[in-house]
Amino acid sequence: MTQLPHIIQGGMGAGVSSWRLAQSVSRLGQLGVVSGTALDQILARRLQDGDPGGHMRRALKAFPFPAKAARVQNAYFIPGGKTTQAAYRVAPMHAKENPRDLTELCILGNFVEVFLAREGHANPVGINYLEKIQMAHLPAIYGAMLANVGYVLMGAGIPLRIPAVLDSFATHQPAEYPLNVTGALETDDTLMHFDPRAWMECELPPLMRPKFLSIVSSNTLATTMLKKAHGRVDGLIIEMPTAGGHNAPPRGKLQLSAEGEPIYGGRDAVDIAKLCELGVPFWLAGGYGHPEKLREALSLGATGVQVGTAFAFTEESDLRADYKTALLAQAASGQAHIFTDPLASPTGFPFKVAQLEGTGSDAEICAARPRICDLGFLREAYRTPDGAIGYRCAAEPISVYVAKGGKPEDAAGRKCLCNALLANIGHPQVRNGHRVEVGLVTAGDDLVHITQFLPPGRSSYRAADVIEKLLTGLASEADERAYASPRTGTQSFASTGQ
Known about the structure:
The chain is α/β, with parallel strands linked by helices. It is built from 18 helices and 17 strands. Residues 480-498 have low confidence and may be disordered.
């Protein structure tokens, strides 16, 4: 029987949970997870930066359809990298119907990230997607499956159709996914389609069907996923409001604290005993990055915990080094602070922001940035007056947003997370040769505790330090022997890639 991991490393931001981090965690016997957000744009920017180390090109050579890999490399690779003043070439924004070159880039971006995370070991690797970023789902998932991804994790929505997509892609069969279109009529065609055989250059054997873990924030959503999903749900990740990134809004009418943060109450609490009755493995997330919290989760019947913030600040994560250093110093001095911003995200979900000088958490910096939407991952699809599908973003110019039928009050205070998140990982867009996009760091409330993972005499820490520290929370020496020693890399669950 396959042993499930105690620790799932969170799939954070766009590129923060990079292949390097996921590889390190999975090598150590826990579940390493890459972020599936914007991997097409990330691959394109890494290639335009000259692909230091040659990792992107090495993965592209392993892609089973070489003509597609060659087209992407020829389109974006710049030997030696672009100049610091030059702008990145930006791929088109996703829509219900995507141009062929964008679909190829999306397939390859996801393949490359998973391939590199799996390189050099036999343990499973996962990929994390946000359900609300729907227009990239089908080619992204197929690309990850071509690289034998072991787990697909998805939250920020209700992904009832994803298990069926995994089933279809395992045998290279067509799949479809409904696009949420504001104002759509029942007679409107809102289904997105993807046929793997239209993209294959040669026959391939069946693919491994990855395990599917649904990320939910309530008992109701957990039950809904298990009862109504189209296909098998293999487990649940229960995410509490203290987790980083996008949070589920509080249930009921939104109320704000004196500081302007959403107030979560009793209706947002999760009944863990009832989760145990559902009969599937589950992991607890949000505030569980502590040894005693792992022990607590296991005692309550959970399989383990998902931990994000602790891993976001490891040496292996792709968060910019200067941001890591500054926030680690803040945590060490007791000055780290997270603000749960109810307005920042164009999606309307609360978004946790680390307060850091020189980033988009600074109101003046944010106000000085022109409202530009040129990546569009968080755009809203809507029905136009003539029955077509249009796209709008609450972070684009307000006049443009309103002209598309948006309400001006829905655009107030919104930030361009897409450009900020790519800046977080060292790929900021340059505009007019001099204006550089700044980052906006997201982290969970556990940011204040990350110095617990610093070894004596060191100013940084690695994924192995996090895993070793968390595993001290196992209930007994017998439990500890049953799982990986992070210093030896002993496998603690399936070495079959599942």
